[in-house]
Amino acid sequence: MISLYLGAIEAGGTKFVCAVGGENGEVYERVTFATKNPSETMEEVVQFFKSHKLKAIGIGSFGPVDLDRTSPTYGYITSTPKLNWSNFPFVEEIKKHFNVPIGFDTDVNAAALGELLWGAAKGETGCIYMTVGTGIGVGAVIEGELLHGLSHPEMGHILIRRHPDDPFAGSCPFHQDCLEGLASGPAIEKRWGKKGAELADRPEVWELEAFYLAQAVANYILILSPRKVILGGGVMKQPQLLPLVRQKVVHLLNGYVQHEAILHRIDEYIVSPGLGDNAGICGALALAKRAMEQ
Amino acid sequence: MISLYLGAIEAGGTKFVCAVGGENGEVYERVTFATKNPSETMEEVVQFFKSHKLKAIGIGSFGPVDLDRTSPTYGYITSTPKLNWSNFPFVEEIKKHFNVPIGFDTDVNAAALGELLWGAAKGETGCIYMTVGTGIGVGAVIEGELLHGLSHPEMGHILIRRHPDDPFAGSCPFHQDCLEGLASGPAIEKRWGKKGAELADRPEVWELEAFYLAQAVANYILILSPRKVILGGGVMKQPQLLPLVRQKVVHLLNGYVQHEAILHRIDEYIVSPGLGDNAGICGALALAKRAMEQ
Protein backbone atom coordinates (compact mmCIF):
# COMPACT_ATOMS: atom_id res chain seq x y z
CA MET A 1 0.00 0.00 0.00
CA ILE A 2 1.27 3.43 -1.00
CA SER A 3 0.26 6.07 1.50
CA LEU A 4 -0.28 9.81 1.25
CA TYR A 5 0.18 10.26 -2.44
CA LEU A 6 -1.83 12.12 -5.01
CA GLY A 7 -4.63 10.53 -7.02
CA ALA A 8 -5.16 11.32 -10.68
CA ILE A 9 -8.04 10.60 -13.06
CA GLU A 10 -7.72 11.18 -16.78
CA ALA A 11 -11.32 10.77 -17.85
CA GLY A 12 -11.72 10.25 -21.57
CA GLY A 13 -14.73 9.43 -23.69
CA THR A 14 -13.29 6.03 -24.64
CA LYS A 15 -10.92 5.23 -21.77
CA PHE A 16 -10.17 6.18 -18.20
CA VAL A 17 -6.67 6.29 -16.74
CA CYS A 18 -6.30 6.34 -12.97
CA ALA A 19 -2.98 6.75 -11.20
CA VAL A 20 -1.37 7.46 -7.88
CA GLY A 21 1.71 9.58 -7.93
CA GLY A 22 3.83 12.19 -6.23
CA GLU A 23 4.25 15.92 -6.07
CA ASN A 24 6.94 15.97 -8.73
CA GLY A 25 4.77 14.33 -11.33
CA GLU A 26 5.99 10.79 -10.68
CA VAL A 27 3.46 8.06 -11.49
CA TYR A 28 3.77 5.12 -9.10
CA GLU A 29 0.88 2.99 -10.20
CA ARG A 30 -1.71 3.23 -12.91
CA VAL A 31 -4.64 1.43 -14.46
CA THR A 32 -6.43 1.97 -17.75
CA PHE A 33 -9.91 0.74 -18.53
CA ALA A 34 -12.61 1.36 -21.13
CA THR A 35 -15.18 4.05 -20.34
CA LYS A 36 -18.51 2.40 -19.60
CA ASN A 37 -21.60 3.94 -18.08
CA PRO A 38 -20.95 6.24 -15.10
CA SER A 39 -21.86 3.80 -12.31
CA GLU A 40 -19.73 0.93 -13.65
CA THR A 41 -16.86 3.29 -14.40
CA MET A 42 -16.98 4.97 -11.00
CA GLU A 43 -16.91 1.55 -9.35
CA GLU A 44 -13.63 0.79 -11.12
CA VAL A 45 -12.24 4.20 -10.16
CA VAL A 46 -13.14 3.79 -6.50
CA GLN A 47 -11.82 0.23 -6.49
CA PHE A 48 -8.42 1.42 -7.71
CA PHE A 49 -8.07 4.31 -5.29
CA LYS A 50 -9.46 2.71 -2.16
CA SER A 51 -6.30 0.76 -1.42
CA HIS A 52 -4.34 4.03 -1.22
CA LYS A 53 -4.29 6.81 1.32
CA LEU A 54 -4.57 9.96 -0.76
CA LYS A 55 -3.95 13.62 0.04
CA ALA A 56 -5.87 14.97 -2.93
CA ILE A 57 -7.38 13.86 -6.22
CA GLY A 58 -7.17 15.62 -9.58
CA ILE A 59 -9.63 14.99 -12.40
CA GLY A 60 -8.92 15.99 -15.99
CA SER A 61 -12.17 15.26 -17.75
CA PHE A 62 -13.65 15.13 -21.21
CA GLY A 63 -16.27 17.81 -21.58
CA PRO A 64 -18.10 19.97 -21.66
CA VAL A 65 -17.77 20.44 -17.92
CA ASP A 66 -18.97 23.07 -15.46
CA LEU A 67 -15.96 24.81 -13.89
CA ASP A 68 -17.82 27.70 -12.30
CA ARG A 69 -17.38 27.27 -8.56
CA THR A 70 -20.44 29.39 -7.86
CA SER A 71 -22.66 27.19 -10.02
CA PRO A 72 -24.98 24.53 -8.53
CA THR A 73 -23.62 22.13 -11.17
CA TYR A 74 -19.93 22.83 -10.51
CA GLY A 75 -17.91 19.69 -11.14
CA TYR A 76 -20.45 18.18 -13.52
CA ILE A 77 -19.94 16.83 -16.99
CA THR A 78 -22.74 18.77 -18.65
CA SER A 79 -24.21 18.27 -22.12
CA THR A 80 -22.06 15.53 -23.62
CA PRO A 81 -23.42 13.49 -26.50
CA LYS A 82 -22.21 10.42 -24.54
CA LEU A 83 -25.70 10.08 -23.18
CA ASN A 84 -25.17 8.31 -19.90
CA TRP A 85 -22.59 10.88 -18.86
CA SER A 86 -24.75 13.93 -19.48
CA ASN A 87 -25.25 15.88 -16.23
CA PHE A 88 -22.95 13.57 -14.30
CA PRO A 89 -21.82 15.12 -10.97
CA PHE A 90 -18.21 13.95 -11.23
CA VAL A 91 -16.73 15.84 -8.27
CA GLU A 92 -19.68 14.97 -6.00
CA GLU A 93 -19.37 11.27 -6.83
CA ILE A 94 -15.67 11.22 -6.01
CA LYS A 95 -16.24 13.20 -2.82
CA LYS A 96 -18.70 10.54 -1.62
CA HIS A 97 -15.81 8.10 -1.39
CA PHE A 98 -12.76 10.27 -0.73
CA ASN A 99 -12.84 13.14 1.71
CA VAL A 100 -9.87 15.02 0.25
CA PRO A 101 -9.41 18.20 -1.82
CA ILE A 102 -10.44 17.58 -5.41
CA GLY A 103 -9.12 19.45 -8.44
CA PHE A 104 -11.32 19.40 -11.52
CA ASP A 105 -10.76 20.77 -14.98
CA THR A 106 -10.86 19.82 -18.63
CA ASP A 107 -8.48 17.09 -19.82
CA VAL A 108 -6.55 19.58 -21.96
CA ASN A 109 -6.29 22.26 -19.28
CA ALA A 110 -4.94 19.53 -17.00
CA ALA A 111 -2.37 18.51 -19.61
CA ALA A 112 -1.30 22.13 -20.08
CA LEU A 113 -0.76 22.45 -16.31
CA GLY A 114 1.17 19.17 -16.21
CA GLU A 115 3.44 20.32 -19.03
CA LEU A 116 3.97 23.64 -17.24
CA LEU A 117 4.92 22.02 -13.95
CA TRP A 118 6.96 19.07 -15.17
CA GLY A 119 7.13 19.00 -18.96
CA ALA A 120 8.02 21.06 -22.00
CA ALA A 121 6.93 24.38 -20.45
CA LYS A 122 8.77 23.93 -17.17
CA GLY A 123 10.13 27.27 -16.01
CA GLU A 124 7.58 29.25 -18.02
CA THR A 125 4.56 31.05 -16.56
CA GLY A 126 2.18 29.75 -19.21
CA CYS A 127 1.67 27.55 -22.25
CA ILE A 128 -0.96 26.02 -24.46
CA TYR A 129 -1.32 22.27 -24.93
CA MET A 130 -3.06 21.07 -28.08
CA THR A 131 -4.05 17.47 -28.62
CA VAL A 132 -4.81 16.26 -32.12
CA GLY A 133 -6.44 12.85 -32.00
CA THR A 134 -10.02 11.57 -31.96
CA GLY A 135 -10.92 15.19 -31.38
CA ILE A 136 -8.92 18.39 -31.20
CA GLY A 137 -8.69 20.14 -27.85
CA VAL A 138 -6.52 22.86 -26.44
CA GLY A 139 -5.81 23.80 -22.84
CA ALA A 140 -4.10 26.94 -21.65
CA VAL A 141 -2.29 28.29 -18.63
CA ILE A 142 -1.85 32.06 -18.60
CA GLU A 143 0.46 33.63 -16.04
CA GLY A 144 0.09 30.55 -13.86
CA GLU A 145 -3.70 30.31 -14.03
CA LEU A 146 -5.78 27.82 -15.99
CA LEU A 147 -7.82 29.58 -18.65
CA HIS A 148 -11.52 29.71 -17.82
CA GLY A 149 -14.11 32.35 -18.60
CA LEU A 150 -17.78 32.26 -19.44
CA SER A 151 -17.21 28.51 -19.65
CA HIS A 152 -14.02 26.74 -20.72
CA PRO A 153 -12.43 27.33 -24.11
CA GLU A 154 -13.33 25.08 -27.04
CA MET A 155 -10.41 25.96 -29.26
CA GLY A 156 -10.63 22.78 -31.34
CA HIS A 157 -13.71 24.15 -33.06
CA ILE A 158 -12.37 27.41 -34.47
CA LEU A 159 -13.02 28.28 -38.08
CA ILE A 160 -10.06 28.03 -40.40
CA ARG A 161 -9.64 28.37 -44.14
CA ARG A 162 -10.31 25.31 -46.23
CA HIS A 163 -7.63 24.31 -48.66
CA PRO A 164 -9.02 25.01 -52.15
CA ASP A 165 -8.06 21.50 -53.34
CA ASP A 166 -9.57 19.66 -50.36
CA PRO A 167 -12.86 18.05 -51.38
CA PHE A 168 -13.58 16.61 -47.90
CA ALA A 169 -16.73 18.16 -46.45
CA GLY A 170 -15.60 17.97 -42.83
CA SER A 171 -16.78 15.75 -40.00
CA CYS A 172 -17.86 18.01 -37.12
CA PRO A 173 -21.54 17.45 -36.28
CA PHE A 174 -21.81 21.06 -35.06
CA HIS A 175 -19.69 23.04 -37.52
CA GLN A 176 -18.89 20.57 -40.30
CA ASP A 177 -15.58 22.03 -41.50
CA CYS A 178 -14.19 23.70 -38.39
CA LEU A 179 -10.64 22.75 -37.33
CA GLU A 180 -11.73 19.49 -35.67
CA GLY A 181 -13.97 18.69 -38.61
CA LEU A 182 -11.05 19.00 -41.04
CA ALA A 183 -7.99 17.91 -39.09
CA SER A 184 -8.87 15.37 -36.36
CA GLY A 185 -7.81 11.74 -36.68
CA PRO A 186 -11.28 10.65 -37.86
CA ALA A 187 -11.30 13.48 -40.43
CA ILE A 188 -7.99 12.22 -41.84
CA GLU A 189 -9.36 8.69 -42.03
CA LYS A 190 -12.60 9.76 -43.72
CA ARG A 191 -10.81 11.97 -46.22
CA TRP A 192 -8.09 9.54 -47.28
CA GLY A 193 -9.83 6.22 -46.57
CA LYS A 194 -7.10 5.03 -44.20
CA LYS A 195 -5.92 5.82 -40.71
CA GLY A 196 -3.14 8.40 -40.35
CA ALA A 197 -0.69 5.75 -39.20
CA GLU A 198 -1.17 3.96 -42.53
CA LEU A 199 -0.58 7.16 -44.52
CA ALA A 200 2.93 7.90 -43.24
CA ASP A 201 4.45 7.72 -46.74
CA ARG A 202 1.95 10.12 -48.36
CA PRO A 203 3.48 13.61 -48.10
CA GLU A 204 0.29 15.28 -49.37
CA VAL A 205 -1.58 14.01 -46.31
CA TRP A 206 0.78 15.78 -43.92
CA GLU A 207 1.13 18.92 -46.01
CA LEU A 208 -2.64 19.34 -45.82
CA GLU A 209 -2.78 18.43 -42.12
CA ALA A 210 -0.05 21.00 -41.39
CA PHE A 211 -1.90 23.55 -43.54
CA TYR A 212 -4.86 23.29 -41.15
CA LEU A 213 -3.00 22.93 -37.85
CA ALA A 214 -0.66 25.84 -38.62
CA GLN A 215 -3.60 28.18 -39.20
CA ALA A 216 -5.00 27.22 -35.82
CA VAL A 217 -1.65 27.61 -34.05
CA ALA A 218 -1.06 31.00 -35.72
CA ASN A 219 -4.47 32.18 -34.52
CA TYR A 220 -3.82 30.91 -30.99
CA ILE A 221 -0.52 32.81 -30.98
CA LEU A 222 -2.18 36.02 -32.19
CA ILE A 223 -5.02 35.73 -29.69
CA LEU A 224 -3.36 34.28 -26.57
CA SER A 225 0.34 35.08 -27.03
CA PRO A 226 1.29 31.79 -25.33
CA ARG A 227 4.78 31.40 -23.89
CA LYS A 228 5.10 27.88 -25.30
CA VAL A 229 3.02 25.86 -27.76
CA ILE A 230 2.88 22.11 -27.13
CA LEU A 231 1.39 19.77 -29.72
CA GLY A 232 0.44 16.25 -28.66
CA GLY A 233 -2.08 13.52 -29.40
CA GLY A 234 -2.07 10.53 -31.73
CA VAL A 235 -1.97 12.43 -35.01
CA MET A 236 1.16 14.34 -33.93
CA LYS A 237 3.03 11.02 -33.67
CA GLN A 238 3.85 11.37 -37.37
CA PRO A 239 7.36 12.80 -37.02
CA GLN A 240 7.17 14.72 -40.30
CA LEU A 241 4.19 16.77 -39.06
CA LEU A 242 5.66 19.01 -36.35
CA PRO A 243 8.40 20.54 -38.56
CA LEU A 244 5.80 21.27 -41.25
CA VAL A 245 3.53 23.00 -38.73
CA ARG A 246 6.40 25.14 -37.42
CA GLN A 247 7.42 26.18 -40.92
CA LYS A 248 3.88 27.13 -41.92
CA VAL A 249 3.23 29.06 -38.69
CA VAL A 250 6.32 31.19 -39.32
CA HIS A 251 5.21 31.74 -42.90
CA LEU A 252 1.68 32.74 -41.86
CA LEU A 253 2.80 35.18 -39.16
CA ASN A 254 5.28 36.67 -41.65
CA GLY A 255 7.42 38.51 -39.11
CA TYR A 256 4.50 40.33 -37.55
CA VAL A 257 4.94 39.03 -34.01
CA GLN A 258 8.44 40.33 -33.41
CA HIS A 259 9.62 38.04 -30.67
CA GLU A 260 12.78 36.04 -30.94
CA ALA A 261 10.97 32.87 -29.83
CA ILE A 262 9.06 33.02 -33.10
CA LEU A 263 11.63 34.70 -35.33
CA HIS A 264 14.68 32.70 -34.25
CA ARG A 265 13.76 29.81 -31.96
CA ILE A 266 10.63 28.28 -33.42
CA ASP A 267 11.96 24.76 -32.77
CA GLU A 268 11.97 25.53 -29.05
CA TYR A 269 8.69 27.43 -29.14
CA ILE A 270 6.40 24.91 -30.86
CA VAL A 271 7.31 21.55 -29.34
CA SER A 272 6.19 18.03 -28.48
CA PRO A 273 4.93 17.23 -24.97
CA GLY A 274 7.80 16.85 -22.52
CA LEU A 275 5.69 14.26 -20.68
CA GLY A 276 4.89 12.32 -23.85
CA ASP A 277 1.77 10.22 -23.45
CA ASN A 278 1.76 11.00 -19.73
CA ALA A 279 0.75 14.63 -20.24
CA GLY A 280 -2.89 13.84 -19.43
CA ILE A 281 -2.40 11.75 -16.32
CA CYS A 282 0.41 13.98 -15.01
CA GLY A 283 -1.91 16.90 -15.65
CA ALA A 284 -4.49 15.29 -13.38
CA LEU A 285 -1.76 14.87 -10.75
CA ALA A 286 -0.97 18.56 -11.18
CA LEU A 287 -4.63 19.39 -10.54
CA ALA A 288 -4.48 17.29 -7.37
CA LYS A 289 -1.35 19.13 -6.26
CA ARG A 290 -3.02 22.51 -6.83
CA ALA A 291 -6.17 21.41 -5.00
CA MET A 292 -4.07 20.36 -2.02
CA GLU A 293 -2.19 23.66 -1.94
CA GLN A 294 -5.27 25.83 -2.17
CA MET B 1 -5.74 73.73 -10.64
CA ILE B 2 -7.09 70.25 -10.03
CA SER B 3 -5.08 68.44 -7.44
CA LEU B 4 -4.45 64.76 -6.76
CA TYR B 5 -6.28 63.26 -9.66
CA LEU B 6 -5.31 60.58 -12.13
CA GLY B 7 -3.61 61.33 -15.43
CA ALA B 8 -4.48 59.42 -18.60
CA ILE B 9 -2.82 59.21 -21.99
CA GLU B 10 -4.51 57.54 -24.94
CA ALA B 11 -1.64 57.38 -27.39
CA GLY B 12 -2.74 56.72 -30.94
CA GLY B 13 -0.86 56.69 -34.20
CA THR B 14 -2.77 59.71 -35.50
CA LYS B 15 -3.89 61.50 -32.32
CA PHE B 16 -3.12 61.72 -28.64
CA VAL B 17 -5.77 62.27 -25.99
CA CYS B 18 -4.65 63.38 -22.52
CA ALA B 19 -6.99 63.74 -19.58
CA VAL B 20 -7.14 64.18 -15.85
CA GLY B 21 -9.87 62.34 -14.05
CA GLY B 22 -10.99 60.52 -10.97
CA GLU B 23 -11.07 57.05 -9.54
CA ASN B 24 -14.55 56.35 -10.79
CA GLY B 25 -13.68 57.00 -14.39
CA GLU B 26 -14.78 60.62 -14.43
CA VAL B 27 -12.93 62.81 -16.94
CA TYR B 28 -12.49 66.36 -15.63
CA GLU B 29 -10.39 67.87 -18.35
CA ARG B 30 -9.03 66.64 -21.65
CA VAL B 31 -7.07 67.70 -24.68
CA THR B 32 -6.66 66.09 -28.07
CA PHE B 33 -3.83 66.80 -30.47
CA ALA B 34 -2.31 65.27 -33.59
CA THR B 35 0.51 62.79 -33.08
CA LYS B 36 3.77 64.37 -34.24
CA ASN B 37 7.29 63.15 -33.64
CA PRO B 38 7.99 61.95 -30.10
CA SER B 39 9.75 65.05 -28.76
CA GLU B 40 7.09 67.49 -29.97
CA THR B 41 4.31 65.20 -28.80
CA MET B 42 5.85 64.63 -25.37
CA GLU B 43 6.19 68.38 -24.95
CA GLU B 44 2.46 68.77 -25.44
CA VAL B 45 1.75 65.90 -23.03
CA VAL B 46 3.99 67.36 -20.32
CA GLN B 47 2.54 70.82 -20.89
CA PHE B 48 -0.98 69.53 -20.28
CA PHE B 49 -0.19 67.55 -17.15
CA LYS B 50 2.22 69.91 -15.45
CA SER B 51 -0.53 72.21 -14.16
CA HIS B 52 -2.05 69.26 -12.26
CA LYS B 53 -0.92 67.40 -9.19
CA LEU B 54 -1.28 63.76 -10.15
CA LYS B 55 -1.31 60.57 -8.10
CA ALA B 56 -0.59 58.27 -11.02
CA ILE B 57 -0.56 58.22 -14.81
CA GLY B 58 -1.94 55.54 -17.11
CA ILE B 59 -0.82 55.13 -20.71
CA GLY B 60 -2.80 53.13 -23.26
CA SER B 61 -0.53 53.11 -26.27
CA PHE B 62 -0.51 52.07 -29.90
CA GLY B 63 1.92 49.24 -30.43
CA PRO B 64 3.72 47.07 -30.55
CA VAL B 65 4.89 47.77 -27.01
CA ASP B 66 7.11 45.93 -24.55
CA LEU B 67 5.05 44.93 -21.49
CA ASP B 68 7.57 42.55 -19.96
CA ARG B 69 8.59 44.13 -16.66
CA THR B 70 11.81 42.13 -16.58
CA SER B 71 12.87 43.44 -20.00
CA PRO B 72 15.41 46.28 -20.40
CA THR B 73 12.99 47.83 -22.89
CA TYR B 74 9.88 47.60 -20.68
CA GLY B 75 7.59 50.53 -21.40
CA TYR B 76 8.91 51.07 -24.92
CA ILE B 77 7.01 51.36 -28.16
CA THR B 78 9.06 48.83 -30.10
CA SER B 79 9.04 48.16 -33.84
CA THR B 80 6.31 50.45 -35.13
CA PRO B 81 6.30 51.44 -38.80
CA LYS B 82 5.77 55.03 -37.55
CA LEU B 83 9.49 55.52 -37.82
CA ASN B 84 10.15 58.25 -35.27
CA TRP B 85 8.35 56.28 -32.60
CA SER B 86 10.29 53.06 -33.06
CA ASN B 87 12.13 52.15 -29.83
CA PHE B 88 10.61 55.08 -27.95
CA PRO B 89 10.96 54.70 -24.15
CA PHE B 90 7.46 55.95 -23.33
CA VAL B 91 7.37 55.14 -19.62
CA GLU B 92 10.90 56.47 -19.04
CA GLU B 93 10.07 59.76 -20.76
CA ILE B 94 6.98 60.28 -18.63
CA LYS B 95 8.85 59.33 -15.47
CA LYS B 96 11.42 62.08 -16.18
CA HIS B 97 8.70 64.64 -15.60
CA PHE B 98 6.29 62.97 -13.19
CA ASN B 99 7.48 60.95 -10.23
CA VAL B 100 4.29 58.92 -9.78
CA PRO B 101 3.29 55.30 -10.44
CA ILE B 102 2.81 54.73 -14.15
CA GLY B 103 0.54 52.12 -15.71
CA PHE B 104 1.36 51.09 -19.26
CA ASP B 105 -0.41 48.77 -21.66
CA THR B 106 -1.80 48.56 -25.16
CA ASP B 107 -4.61 50.95 -26.10
CA VAL B 108 -7.05 48.06 -26.45
CA ASN B 109 -6.09 46.33 -23.21
CA ALA B 110 -6.62 49.71 -21.52
CA ALA B 111 -10.05 50.05 -23.09
CA ALA B 112 -10.99 46.53 -22.00
CA LEU B 113 -10.02 47.40 -18.41
CA GLY B 114 -11.95 50.66 -18.58
CA GLU B 115 -15.05 48.85 -19.79
CA LEU B 116 -14.64 46.28 -17.03
CA LEU B 117 -14.36 48.89 -14.28
CA TRP B 118 -16.89 51.42 -15.44
CA GLY B 119 -18.52 50.36 -18.69
CA ALA B 120 -20.38 47.54 -20.38
CA ALA B 121 -18.56 44.78 -18.45
CA LYS B 122 -19.01 46.32 -15.00
CA GLY B 123 -19.60 43.58 -12.46
CA GLU B 124 -17.90 40.92 -14.62
CA THR B 125 -14.44 39.47 -13.97
CA GLY B 126 -13.36 39.76 -17.58
CA CYS B 127 -14.22 40.90 -21.09
CA ILE B 128 -12.75 41.53 -24.50
CA TYR B 129 -12.84 44.91 -26.19
CA MET B 130 -12.53 45.00 -29.97
CA THR B 131 -12.08 48.21 -31.91
CA VAL B 132 -12.82 48.25 -35.62
CA GLY B 133 -11.49 51.42 -37.18
CA THR B 134 -8.26 52.43 -38.94
CA GLY B 135 -6.98 49.11 -37.69
CA ILE B 136 -8.53 46.25 -35.78
CA GLY B 137 -7.33 45.61 -32.25
CA VAL B 138 -8.61 43.57 -29.35
CA GLY B 139 -7.82 43.83 -25.65
CA ALA B 140 -8.72 41.30 -23.00
CA VAL B 141 -9.12 41.05 -19.26
CA ILE B 142 -9.26 37.50 -17.92
CA GLU B 143 -10.29 36.91 -14.32
CA GLY B 144 -9.30 40.48 -13.48
CA GLU B 145 -5.91 40.42 -15.19
CA LEU B 146 -4.91 42.07 -18.46
CA LEU B 147 -3.96 39.46 -21.04
CA HIS B 148 -0.24 39.35 -21.71
CA GLY B 149 2.01 36.45 -22.62
CA LEU B 150 5.05 36.05 -24.80
CA SER B 151 4.22 39.60 -25.89
CA HIS B 152 0.74 41.15 -26.11
CA PRO B 153 -1.99 39.66 -28.27
CA GLU B 154 -2.43 40.86 -31.84
CA MET B 155 -5.93 39.54 -32.38
CA GLY B 156 -6.73 41.92 -35.23
CA HIS B 157 -4.50 39.90 -37.51
CA ILE B 158 -6.06 36.46 -37.24
CA LEU B 159 -6.83 34.51 -40.37
CA ILE B 160 -10.47 34.22 -41.31
CA ARG B 161 -12.28 32.80 -44.30
CA ARG B 162 -12.67 35.02 -47.30
CA HIS B 163 -16.16 35.41 -48.66
CA PRO B 164 -16.22 33.60 -52.04
CA ASP B 165 -17.76 36.65 -53.75
CA ASP B 166 -15.34 39.20 -52.30
CA PRO B 167 -12.81 40.21 -54.96
CA PHE B 168 -10.87 42.59 -52.67
CA ALA B 169 -7.32 41.36 -52.15
CA GLY B 170 -6.97 42.72 -48.62
CA SER B 171 -4.92 45.61 -47.28
CA CYS B 172 -2.67 44.26 -44.53
CA PRO B 173 1.01 44.80 -45.39
CA PHE B 174 1.97 41.71 -43.36
CA HIS B 175 -0.81 39.23 -44.07
CA GLN B 176 -2.78 40.80 -46.92
CA ASP B 177 -6.19 39.25 -46.24
CA CYS B 178 -6.16 38.69 -42.49
CA LEU B 179 -9.08 40.14 -40.47
CA GLU B 180 -7.63 43.66 -40.42
CA GLY B 181 -6.77 43.41 -44.11
CA LEU B 182 -10.38 42.55 -44.98
CA ALA B 183 -12.51 44.37 -42.42
CA SER B 184 -10.79 47.55 -41.15
CA GLY B 185 -12.12 51.00 -42.12
CA PRO B 186 -9.46 51.45 -44.83
CA ALA B 187 -10.26 47.98 -46.21
CA ILE B 188 -13.94 48.96 -46.54
CA GLU B 189 -12.98 52.17 -48.30
CA LYS B 190 -10.58 50.45 -50.70
CA ARG B 191 -13.07 47.69 -51.52
CA TRP B 192 -16.12 49.86 -52.12
CA GLY B 193 -14.47 53.12 -53.19
CA LYS B 194 -16.13 55.13 -50.43
CA LYS B 195 -15.80 55.50 -46.68
CA GLY B 196 -18.05 53.35 -44.51
CA ALA B 197 -20.03 56.37 -43.35
CA GLU B 198 -21.02 57.04 -46.98
CA LEU B 199 -22.12 53.42 -47.49
CA ALA B 200 -24.80 53.32 -44.80
CA ASP B 201 -27.57 52.52 -47.31
CA ARG B 202 -25.73 49.60 -48.97
CA PRO B 203 -26.83 46.46 -47.09
CA GLU B 204 -24.28 44.27 -48.93
CA VAL B 205 -21.45 46.30 -47.38
CA TRP B 206 -22.59 45.49 -43.85
CA GLU B 207 -23.50 41.89 -44.59
CA LEU B 208 -19.95 41.31 -45.76
CA GLU B 209 -18.44 43.28 -42.87
CA ALA B 210 -20.49 41.24 -40.39
CA PHE B 211 -19.47 38.03 -42.21
CA TYR B 212 -15.83 38.83 -41.36
CA LEU B 213 -16.29 40.28 -37.88
CA ALA B 214 -18.56 37.43 -36.76
CA GLN B 215 -15.93 34.86 -37.71
CA ALA B 216 -13.39 36.70 -35.60
CA VAL B 217 -15.75 37.06 -32.63
CA ALA B 218 -16.72 33.37 -32.83
CA ASN B 219 -13.04 32.41 -32.76
CA TYR B 220 -12.35 34.73 -29.83
CA ILE B 221 -15.26 33.12 -27.96
CA LEU B 222 -14.01 29.60 -28.69
CA ILE B 223 -10.44 30.45 -27.70
CA LEU B 224 -10.85 32.88 -24.77
CA SER B 225 -14.38 32.21 -23.50
CA PRO B 226 -14.80 35.91 -22.66
CA ARG B 227 -17.47 36.93 -20.14
CA LYS B 228 -18.52 39.87 -22.31
CA VAL B 229 -17.71 40.92 -25.88
CA ILE B 230 -17.57 44.67 -26.51
CA LEU B 231 -17.37 46.02 -30.05
CA GLY B 232 -16.31 49.62 -30.57
CA GLY B 233 -14.45 51.85 -33.03
CA GLY B 234 -15.55 53.98 -35.96
CA VAL B 235 -16.81 51.18 -38.19
CA MET B 236 -19.13 49.89 -35.44
CA LYS B 237 -20.99 53.24 -35.49
CA GLN B 238 -23.14 51.85 -38.29
CA PRO B 239 -26.14 50.82 -36.18
CA GLN B 240 -27.11 47.98 -38.53
CA LEU B 241 -23.78 46.22 -38.00
CA LEU B 242 -23.92 45.00 -34.39
CA PRO B 243 -27.21 43.03 -34.78
CA LEU B 244 -25.80 41.37 -37.91
CA VAL B 245 -22.63 40.36 -36.09
CA ARG B 246 -24.62 38.89 -33.19
CA GLN B 247 -26.86 36.91 -35.52
CA LYS B 248 -23.93 35.49 -37.48
CA VAL B 249 -21.95 34.59 -34.33
CA VAL B 250 -24.90 32.57 -33.03
CA HIS B 251 -25.23 30.90 -36.42
CA LEU B 252 -21.52 30.04 -36.59
CA LEU B 253 -21.35 28.61 -33.06
CA ASN B 254 -24.50 26.59 -33.81
CA GLY B 255 -25.36 25.76 -30.22
CA TYR B 256 -21.95 24.30 -29.45
CA VAL B 257 -21.08 26.63 -26.59
CA GLN B 258 -23.96 25.79 -24.30
CA HIS B 259 -24.14 28.86 -22.17
CA GLU B 260 -27.28 30.87 -21.77
CA ALA B 261 -25.39 34.12 -22.46
CA ILE B 262 -24.88 32.87 -26.01
CA LEU B 263 -28.01 30.76 -26.43
CA HIS B 264 -30.53 33.17 -24.92
CA ARG B 265 -28.96 36.55 -24.16
CA ILE B 266 -26.75 37.37 -27.11
CA ASP B 267 -27.94 41.01 -27.08
CA GLU B 268 -26.46 41.40 -23.61
CA TYR B 269 -23.35 39.36 -24.38
CA ILE B 270 -22.09 41.10 -27.54
CA VAL B 271 -22.54 44.80 -26.88
CA SER B 272 -21.40 48.35 -27.63
CA PRO B 273 -18.94 50.08 -25.31
CA GLY B 274 -20.63 51.38 -22.17
CA LEU B 275 -18.16 54.25 -22.18
CA GLY B 276 -18.78 55.09 -25.84
CA ASP B 277 -15.89 57.03 -27.34
CA ASN B 278 -14.38 57.42 -23.88
CA ALA B 279 -13.41 53.74 -23.61
CA GLY B 280 -9.80 54.50 -24.56
CA ILE B 281 -9.18 57.47 -22.30
CA CYS B 282 -11.12 55.92 -19.39
CA GLY B 283 -9.05 52.80 -19.96
CA ALA B 284 -5.90 54.86 -19.47
CA LEU B 285 -7.43 56.24 -16.26
CA ALA B 286 -8.08 52.64 -15.21
CA LEU B 287 -4.41 51.81 -15.81
CA ALA B 288 -3.45 54.79 -13.64
CA LYS B 289 -5.78 53.57 -10.89
CA ARG B 290 -4.26 50.06 -11.02
CA ALA B 291 -0.72 51.48 -10.98
CA MET B 292 -1.56 53.52 -7.89
CA GLU B 293 -3.06 50.53 -6.09
CA GLN B 294 -0.17 48.19 -6.82
UniProtKB/TrEMBL annotation, chains A, B:
Top EC class of this enzyme: transferase
InterPro entries in the record: ATPase_NBD (IPR043129), Carb_Metab_Reg_Kinase/Isom (IPR051804), ROK (IPR000600), ROK_cs (IPR049874)
Keywords: ATP-binding, Carbohydrate metabolism, Kinase, Magnesium, Metal-binding, Nucleotide-binding, Transferase, Zinc
E.C. code: 2.7.1.4
Record has ATP-binding as a keyword: yes
UniProt cofactor(s): Mg(2+)
GO terms of molecular function: ATP binding; fructokinase activity; metal ion binding
Reaction catalysis annotation: D-fructose + ATP = D-fructose 6-phosphate + ADP + H(+)
Transmembrane segments: none
A Pfam match: ROK
Source organism, top-level taxon: Bacteria
UniProt key word Ribonucleoprotein: no
Family designation: Belongs to the ROK (NagC/XylR) family.
Name of this protein: fructokinase
Species for this entry: Thermolongibacillus altinsuensis
